[in-house]
Amino acid sequence: MNRRKKKKQQVDYLDLAKQKFSSIDWQQIKQQVLTKWNMLPKLHQRALTVLVPLLLILLVIPLPEPQQQEETATPSQRVEVNINTRSLSEQKNAQQQSLASDAWKEYEVKSGDTLAQVFRNNGLAMSDLNALVKVEGSDKPLSRIKQGQLVRFKLEDSGQLDILQLEKNNQSVMFFRLSDGGFGRSK
Hints:
peptidoglycan binding, Nuclear Transport Factor 2, Chain: A, OapA_N, LysM, alpha+beta, 5-stranded antiparallel sheet
């Protein structure tokens, strides 16, 4: 059994609108508007004769588009930026060499080195290593040293460890001696 849907009749909305428009009694509307207009005070009538055309003009005239600033770059425009992407430990120039303090020492971690071996090789106290491990943190930068990583440290005048800095992947973690003899960590 073939069931066909009945097509809806096409409605000519333009013709329907013309019929509605022609059925309006314009004389009656004109009389209603004039009676209400005459009920208004003269000052209000004058204000409306100025404001209504002005409002209609403002609605018809398009607003100018806001101008874009010249500084903003379009998405397709490429801008060249000169950035030095090398880490501070790799940047060795004459000015940095002259400003380097004799108190700072650097050690590059070799294959198979542990932090204990780094401390032994540089004559640092193991008690300082134990104090550092207590404030290491959840990311474990001391426990996870890798080959090629830079370990910088500064000694006090007495020869004790004052500051220890670990650099890895352009990030730096610094441990420093507190006034009570323990260590603190900054990142």
